[in-house]
What does this fold into?
Amino acid sequence: MDITILIYQAILVVFIFSVSLFVAMYSTYAERKVAAFMQDRIGPDRAGPFGILQPLADGVKMFMKEEFIPNPSDKFLFVVGPCVAMFTACISSAVIPWGDSLSINGHILSLQVADINIGILYVFGVVSMGVYGIMIGGWASNNKYSMIGAIRASSQLISYEISMGLALIPIVMMSGSISLKTIVEQQQGIHWNVFVQPLSFLIFLICAFAETNRTPFDLPECETELIGGFHTEYSSMKLGFYLFAEYINMFVSSAVMAALYFGGYNFPFIHSLGLSHNAVTLLGVGFFFAKIFAFIFFFMWVRWTIPRFRYDQLMKLGWKILIPLAILNILITGALMMIKAS
Amino acid sequence: MAPYFFYFLAFLAIFSALMVVFSKNPVYSVLFLVMTFFAIAGQYILLNAQFLAVVHIIVYAGAIMVLFLFVVMLLNLNKELEPHKSSLLKLAGVIASGILMLTLIGTFRGATEQVVGAGLSDGLTYNNQVGLVKNLGKVLFSDFLLPFELSSILFLSAMVGAVMLGKRDKEPIEL
It folds into this structure.
């Protein structure tokens, strides 16, 4: 481990961090534009050309608002809540392989911060930590709406984590690895997992919606029943953290889905173009981001199309439909693999 | 470098474990327990047992402690409502947990001999590859197959029991 590698890693971390913040920032703009398009409106168009500076204006607004901590709340945990939410959202991108390697001056530089051999489990670990941000914030507010929102959120996250994990097992069985890099490398060309495991992808997609608290699963912040859900009492940048963490989560889960099921940075016929290794890598990164943006658009599309579930429907879907389906998928995959091997 | 990490994590684990007991607010106790689990996961990483570390986080910190937090928040415990325990009960608690600690120490000492007996390690040097998921899986499904399957049966029966307890009665209970 020499010093150049360390410096390179540090640069990569900072770069990925800023990219995910940037994408999350412009997701808020994209969301409003998509919503406007779906509802036949214009959307934000005042700040800069086409309203392109709207996220900056929103950010300034968030910072300038009054910082308010309610008196009966638990002051310390009230601040810790949004910090945990933001922190867990930010660290989950460490294991995502953004691209193949670059070779500069004989150094082979991988475009992945940490290729640990537990890759996908790391993502699950971080996701399961995300619930603390919501629970701590909801409880510390000392408000019954926040409390109900927090309890809804945590039971929803726990329920859907199970089916998410079970949905992933067939992929792990087929690739024989839980390192994200290996899983992506095995999807060379067009051998994407989504064609082999469509059911697994569908379950994972539904669970990703639930895990990021997006409509139709945004019960924790359901306005008509709970005012603002777990962040009812929050204002200023602490509220901003919660909202922003949701967009970062959306970005990261889009990246995870693109990597697991849509081949990550692979795309068909790239190696027959006769480009140099670095050019292929950079093209791959571009293609990976195109897939991610397609997923983010899908998230928004669903939000403005499908109404929210009722809470009992949500639980029924999670426990009585998705988990049995995921287990069935594991059994079928296992049986097929055994037939193929013998 | 590693010894410093070890001492830091050990200090963190013991400190937050003590805070679990001494915190006035049960929600803080649960959060300190989560911190203890993180410190222990850090120790696993120092031993290169990444799989164990991340499963520890997912299962204990991510699922079980969330349920604890859930229950504690819903019960809304506080000092005034809590029944006062007599010092005899406290003494019994100390003795019981002391005996449990002795049992655990005895078990782990036995486990070392068993691992040596299975030829996985010589008991003196640490094989830093044993905690990787591939090796762990192989060991679990060959040398420790019976205990592994027995514990899964235990989990299954616990699950069936939970479902039975949670099942709604056919006759609605008159309130």
Observations:
- Chain A touches chain B at residues 74, 77, 116-118, 121-122, 124-125, 127-129, 131-132, 135-136, 139, 147, 150-151, 154-155, 158, 161, 178 (CB under 8 Å).
- Strands of chain A lie at 101-104, 107-110.
